[in-house]
Amino acid sequence: MEKDKHLGLRIDSDTHKKLKSLAEYDGRSINGEVLYLIRQAIVQHEQTKGTLK
Fold it and tell me: Are 34 and 9 in contact (CB under 8 A)?
């Protein structure tokens, strides 16, 4: 079983504030919101450009 990976991310204060608001609105943690948005981007990409490896 593969372990979860850690990703360090630096973002500016304004983006962090807005991301926090978005996460709270959606009932997620900031980490959960970032993961959701990344997964949505992957799905969107695969629907238009094909499956990623």
Answer: yes
